[in-house]
Amino acid sequence: MEWQEIRLLRKQLEGFLRGFDGCFARSEGRGHLRTYVRGQLSDLPRKSVEPIADHAGIPPRTLQDFLAAHTWDHERAIDCLQQHVAEHFHDDHAVGVIDETGFPKDGNQTAGVQRQYCGAMGKIGNCVMSVHLGYALPSETFRCTLDSQLYLPRSWLNDSDRCQAAGIPETLPYRSTWRIALDLVRRALRNGVRFGYLTFDENFGKAPAFLETLHGWGQQYVAEVPSSFRGWLLEPTVLQKGRHQSKGRPLKYPRLSVKSTPDNRVDRLCRYSYLMRDQAWETFHVKDGQKGPILWRAKAARFRMKLPHPDGGRKGTGYGLPSCPLWLIVARNVLTGEIKYFVSNAPAGTPLEELLRVAFSRWHIERCFQDEKSFLGMDHFECRRYQAIRRHLVLTAISHLFLAQTRLEQMRRGEKPSELSPASQSRRCLRCHPIHATGPTQKVPSTDQPIDSARPASQSPCR
Asked: Do 161 and 253 have their domain in common?
């Protein structure tokens, strides 16, 4: 979206921000909200507090206090954002995407900073991590961020002096990334947001307790899982009641029969079990990328994962029992040979095309990160305190929702939509490589010619 277009949208922006006025008790706070959002939407090369304040002609200290110390309800602002999305962009087939992102930071005083893997850097480095919940419509080009939370490592929460200096509440417990994700989903559901499916990568999918909780809520998902994820393709026998024992410690029920097939890793199940091994691969056109069509071969079978103990231990009733019937999907990239494994609690009879469409829709949240970082300055924050960073992420989500809503309105009016992020406008010939990333996954008919013989990118007339 061009800067000239944004200047023409001042009236629409004012009406949009009016929906958040209830989060502020004083008019000064409502004014600071507008100043901050306009600064993020401006053409400033850097969107931290000082450049935004200088651009607006106010002291930087004013916006610093707005983030760190002023009394306003940023949690209510997230509720307003989610209720707005639920009211105006409801779709029974909407996909919720969970992912984490990193913000490289120097020093050791910024809340949550430590040496850990950072996707933005592509390596282990000093950074702050946050977990995000995104929302995407399948039929139209609309995506936004619904909520986000900082990940606080145990090393921080075990250091009370450090937490106090960064403004981290003493009562805040340690939460793994998947528990943070559960909190984000629970809040969105309470605010009326509905997801046809949730999808996420193996960092979240590797936790069976996370998947089981979502299923208990009645939420469908397609989760990428690591190759070491364990379960059964052949349904094991579960004993519900046994004979009375006169001697020895009484056995706990339900439990697995000793004659049941043992659980195994999903990579071994897909390679050696006849239920997967003897299936023919189906080829699917997932989407068109910059270098041509992206094709994956896939097959699926019914599967039961190994349930965890409710308290995270390895003993007790229910540990190691099979879950309800799930789908196990194995997908292999035609060109690179990359293999991915997914599990889903979609009902029996769900087409494999639909499951793959959801599984490969995580690019929506990556695009949100790209737009918010390159266009709105999400990673430009220089504050160190926990509340200030949280509020900065909230305000960035508000700014991004406005741009996503405006772009969708352009499409509905039949106008050519503009890209949100200048960095996302790669040079590509749409005649040769049309982009259908938001469309449904298409099955490719079988042919006698190997699918690997598709025209390589070097033969494209665009090059």
From this structure: no
